[in-house]
Amino acid sequence: MDLLLWAVRVSHFFAVIVWIGGFLYQAAVLLPLWVPGDPATTRLVISGFRRFLPFQWLGLTTVLVTGTCLMLFSTRFVFFSYPDWWSVALGIKQLIFLCLVFFSFGFARMVQKYDDPGAGEEVIRLRIFQFNRNGVFLGIIATLLGVSMHN
Q1: What angle in degrees, to the nearest 10, is found between the helix axes of 85-113 and 121-148?
Q2: How many domains does the chain have?
Q3: For the purposes of burial, counting CB atoms within 10 Å of the CB of 149, is it exposed (0-12), middle (13-18) or buried (19 or more)?
Q4: Is 0.90 topped by the overall pTM?
Q5: Residue 125's pLDDT band (boundaries 50, 70, 90)?
Q6: Which of 13, 25, 69, 74 is 20 to 30 A off residue 32, Cα-Cα?
Q7: Mean pLDDT, the chain, as a whole number?
Q8: What percent of the chain has pLDDT over 70?
Q9: What gap in Å lies between CA 53 and CA 116, rounded to an integer?
């Protein structure tokens, strides 16, 4: 059982790195390249976003499955009971995860909507910036909460 728990924990750790690291990569590399009105860089950035989407869904799914397993394997976990900091931090992390799922769907929708000729490029660009920044911020908060849960 210890080996299984270790494997799930390591998988969860690497899935978080892929998911949040992807958001950070986009914020640090792709988004600064996006110059409004320049079709060449816009196509490059949008194609970069599209190539990241499968990694985003893979990371999200793996975080969901491994996080659920870690939660259910824990002896501290009791449904809807928050007697200590570990339980409170877990509840906050679950809410943040739901927000990150919402932002991931919004991000994917905006990337796919870019091909729609009726959609304004600047509005889509601002929404993608917003979803990315929210994802980075909430991902960092969730990571810090996860670190605080291991005493």
Answers
A1: 160
A2: 1
A3: middle
A4: no
A5: confident
A6: 13
A7: 86
A8: 96
A9: 18
* Angle value at C-alpha 141, between 100 and 13, nearest 5 degrees: 75
- For the four alpha carbons of 21, 143, 96 and 3, in that order, the dihedral sign comes to positive
Sign of CA dihedral 82, 134, 105, 145: negative
* CATH number of the domain where residue 142 is located: 1.20.120
Structure tokens at 116: 């729609």
- With residue 115 as reference, give the H or E element that holds it: none
Residue 17: alpha-carbon gap to chain centroid = 9
Banded pLDDT at 97 (limits 50, 70, 90): very high
Q: How confident is the model at residue 64 (pLDDT cuts 50, 70, 90)?
A: very high
Do 107 and 46 touch, CB atoms closer than 8 A? no
- Helices 121-148 and 2-25 cross at an angle (nearest 10°) of 150
If you search the block for the tokens 């599209």, which residue do you land on? Answer: 50
106 neighbors 131 (Cβ within 8 angstroms): yes
Contact 12, 63 (CB under 8 A): yes
Give the pLDDT score at 7: 92
Please compute, for residue 142, the number of CA atoms within 13 A of its CA located in the half-sphere on the CB side.
24
Report how far Cα 13 is from the mean position of its chain's Cα atoms.
Answer: 13
